Amino acid sequence: MAPLRKLPIARSKIRLRSVYMRTLVVGDIHGKLDLFNLLLEKMEYRAGEDRLILIGDLVDRGENSRGVVARAIELKREAPNNVIVLRGNHEAMMLAALLHPEGEQAELWYYNGGIETLQSYMDEEGDCDVPEEHWDFLASLPTWYEDDHAIYVHASLPEGDDGDFLHPGETPESPEIYWSRNRHFYMEYSGKTVVFGHTITGMIFGERGEVWLRDSLICVDTGAYLTGVLSAVELPSRRVFSVASELEEENGAQSWGGLGLFRKLGFG
Fold this sequence. Notes:
Layout: E1 23-26, H1 33-43, E2 51-54, H2 65-78, E3 83-85, H3 89-99, H4 104-120, H5 132-139, E4 144-146, E5 151-153, H6 176-179, H7 183-188, E6 194-196, E7 212-213, E8 217-219, H8 224-227, E9 229-235, E10 239-244, H9 246-255, H10 259-265
């Protein structure tokens, strides 16, 4: 009987994908569409396989709020069950201002980046044209989300009368969820991990341009419109992704000194 011969085995590179669903949480985008697309590419976002959470403040300050809203709608349409977009204070201001353009909310919105958003929605005749699809999308955004890894809100958990923090499901329309800058929350909260944005790292806590990671808190707002850095965190691994624009980094460095007034006024 002839001896057995080893047959040649074709070798190929096989890229292994993780067997679990990643949760990718993107910080405040503020009209920076190019950075947002770059971040999706860097994270190797997989529609339908990953859970994608946008922490709010898609609009204002940056140059292409309309484009960011359109991209968010597109992503939601591709994977409706796995893409969650939260309401930020800037979406709330935008809707209130468009409903009552002569009211106080409109003035507040214009002062906080609304002018740039209006410009992005201008048509060729110079009229503001917000598509009904965009309006309906922004008006439908929830204030919170929760999965096995964390609770997700734009700004903070509401604080109860006894000083304890409430689950957002108890008071889902509380403005604290998308407006608050509560130092007590930043310094003393403990419990299930909360991922939030709204307060740019380096203002009150953390380092400029870096995601703030603590046992129970993660802040993903690295100031895209101000520092040129847009960031995200992957859960459960806590891996951080960041992209930056060189031009915006230069502008951000010049603007960073103005954050004293920014903090005092409580805007963002």
